[in-house]
Design a protein that fits this description.
- With about 180 residues, this protein is an all-alpha fold.
- It is built from three helices and no strands.
- It is elongated and about 105 Å long.
- The model has no long low-confidence stretch (mean pLDDT about 80).
- Participates in the reverse transport of cholesterol from tissues to the liver for excretion by promoting cholesterol efflux from tissues and by acting as a cofactor for the lecithin cholesterol acyltransferase (LCAT).
- Pfam families: Apolipoprotein.
- It is found in: Secreted.
Amino acid sequence: LKLAENLDTLSAAATKLREDMAPYYKEMKEMWQKDTEALRQELSKDLEEVKEKIRPFLDQFSQKWTEEVEQYRQRLAPVAEELKELTKQKVELMQEKLTPVAEEARDRLRGHVEELRKNLAPFSDELRQKLSQKLEEIREKGIPQAAEYQAKVVEQLSNLREKVSPLVQDFKERLTPY
């Protein structure tokens, strides 16, 4: 019977503690939301800054690549006309002529992609450093959900990488026919 009384007393104490802690919890939750809103805005601002910094490199890459594709298209237009008029043997001979041009185009694309990667690397490192610094600040403040926010940041970086990868892949696919 004393055990049942003690359990009832413990249950009542837990309920009272929960009721007493509810305002503190609510206040802490509101403060947390306020603090993380500022962080979210700051991270968004940092991401926009990085986007603006890399935009000229992407534009330059796109312009160079467009010019290169146009040059190859112009160089290949006469060859394509010849291909229409030639027999099967001559078609095979023309393919042999086209292989070095295609290889050159592929190599130049790789060079442009590497140049773009080199140009974007400092911005990626800068963003990663800023994010690490923000996460460290969160850890120092004792915010218990820092790991969750770090995962979200990693996810955002992955999303950014996924957005840039299709652009590079698209350029590669555009080159393939030539």
